[in-house]
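Q: For a teaching session next week I want to show students how multiple molecules come together into a single three-dimensional assembly. I've collected the sequence lines for a complex. Could you give me the predicted structure tokens for the whole thing so I can convert them for display?
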Amino acid sequence: MELIGLLNYAVFMAIFIGIYSLLALGLNIQWGFSGLFNAGIAGFFAVGAYSSALLTAPESAVHLGGYQLPVVVGWIGAMIAAGAIAWPIGKVCLRFRSDYLAIATIGVAEIIRLVVKSEGWMTGGARGVNKIPRPFGDLSYLYSQLAYLALVFAIVLVVYWAIERQISAPWGRMMRGIRDNEDAATAMGKDIKARRLEAFIFGAAVMGLGGALFAHFNRSITPEAIDPMIATFLIWIMLILGGSGNNRGALLGVAVVWIIWSASEFVTDQLPTEYAIKAKYMRVFIIGLLLQLVLRFRPEGILPEPQGTAGSPEVKTFQKQESAAK
Amino acid sequence: MPFMEFVNFYLMPGIVLGSIYALGAVGITLVFGILRFAHLAHGDLATLGAFAALGVVTIFGVSPWVALPVAMVVCAFMAIGIDKLFYDYLSERPKIIVVMSSLGIALMLRAVVQVVWGVDTETYTRGIVRPDDYWGIRIRDREIYTIIAMFVIVGVLWAFLQKTKWGKAMRAMSDNPDLALLSGVDNRKITMLTWGIVGILCAASGFFLGINTELKPLMGWTMLLPMFAAAILGGVGRVEGAVIGGLIVGIAEETSVLFIPGEYKAAMAFAILLLILLVRPTGLLKGKVL
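A: Of course. Below is the structure for the complete assembly, covering every listed component.
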């Protein structure tokens, strides 16, 4: 019996790691490869979660919807919606240094929270959206969890593969070039604003997908499910600790931080109530301190971004030409 | 709607709120202009200042007005300490790394407030204060003090920046840090001085928000967006611009309820921010664009 409980817990944790992985991969596109500071991850997450929920949920008196579309359509809708929110923000803010984007994305997350809370006809207000269909939801509890876990991992793999491909393509090299030396990239004739906008929307869409997976996993989504600052900040520390600019680092960071975070929750829950609440905030303090330490002592993260161009196609062609010339 | 009603219920609260935003926005504009990064922990430093004053009030039982200078000193040292402990080590790195660090500091400061003071809503004094009537304008004493204090604090700062050697050095560093260094301005000392001033301004804005409304651990964070909107609206690096920006954002928020649902009051600052970035990124008074 113990073992089953433990397994259930492990599967539950793994699903969350999968969902957070999508958010961290999305952030890696924006920050890791393109140097865009998104401080409103929770906002894009919420947009994805609610869009997919509303597209697929059965009809209800408290919120918009009743479309009961297939889950896949919901997920695609989530990505489109999150990208559509990112577009105007990027359009306005990406002309400037990333500080402006940071402020604007904090604002976006705040506005999305306001909309979700006050537009009850659309989102169900505080009651949220319930009875969201879940793929494999008809199976018995453990099997349904396992099946969903497999699905989440498959999606993470596909997204990981897609990003890796995109990043090793000329587009990825150009993005890193823009990130590292904007002037040089401009001189090379790159349209910096447009390219950054692409990266920003791409990343936001991946975050929206993460939100959709969360909503379907929970079968419901309420405004309380998203604590904007903590969620956003956890993703940041995951990416920075794991290694920004390195997708494997991002995934590793997610696993490490999420396990520390959950384990510490486990510890604080054992404390007497009066200390438990304070300990909850101490946890936030420590995670903030962890970011400071990583930024100061190991800014490149556990798995740094691979440097140099030894493996890149141009260098190989160049070497071939060199040896041929000799 | 009668004109006096508009003044009493929308314009005056707007000016009071705007004064609070202005105090914060001046600090933001100083960091943005002199140290060249967006300080995301600004709101939570203001929260700390407000709660520090509350601590003084509850421990010594003094009037909140006596507690304000204490909170200012606490916040000034806090800001200098945070810079020495965290931001200073990142000064050689891209500025956006410091922005990220300040986001972490924001969380840490808030966690400190939540651990020390809990999460309940607090007030400096109990009881309801009725507004007095001055020729038809209904305003509370504390609201008058807020507006006056804002103009006095900013006026002193403005005179300091214009007239004194240190103030001129700060402006020089804002214009061109390398050139300032060459002319013998000690960038390290100016950075410290800036953080001290920023801490004082933070404490003031947090305190006045607390005395006019309530103290909540999230009070500063919700002020962050309006304060940034005000700083950018006024022109980054321009102290007088930040005051104008703060007043505009405050009045816009309070009068917005005439046109849009009250829940979206907080969205006004965001709308102003996007609009100004779209049409005039240098702000009303020509400021810097980073």
